Amino acid sequence: MRVRSISGKIPAFILQYRMDSIILASGSPRRKEFFKLLGIPFNAVPADIDESITANTDGKRFSSELALKKVEKVLSDARANPPAWIFGADTVIEADNRIYGKAENRVEAAAMLRYLSGKRHQVITSMALYNRRENKTDCRSVCCGVIFSPLTDAEIEWYLDTNEWQGAAGAYRIQGIAACFIDSIEGSPSNVMGLPLRDFYVMLKDNGYDYGA
User: Of the N and C termini of the chain, which has fewer Cβ atoms inside 10 Å?
Assistant: First the structure.
């Protein structure tokens, strides 16, 4: 398999490898960008699952369940010819024992931002990696803390007008204008973006995926 960069050229630092393609069970543009950044060949196959948040659910357990369900859905759909690798991930926000996923509309997004304003919350990303060779799925979760500065109503309305909140857990994207509202991050910044790169790299290595040194 020939691995190519976005420009169509084979990245020099991975010419020596012939990596397996990974099925990315996600439609997240950020995770696609990370896979491209790492030079990992992949095919995005978004998993259609129910992501409804149930009451009294622990954030880590909930995100782990969704990551596993995404992998299981893709594996089930391809049962006759399962791919070598399937990767699913899910990111949620947890604050005061309450889980925040993606806002359904502008009103809900505004409510999320007002609640997070001036507070510390936790970002949890769970990753599930299926390995056909060993016929198993490894699931891991990464947590980090984010402290928001206090937001005025005008700032919230301004941010909502950017539409960055759409499709983002907690109704914000740290890699965009929302970075202006972040006082500090305790942990991996890439985790807040949806894929903790260091932990993902270690996960690939631990499961025998041929990547890196």
Answer: C
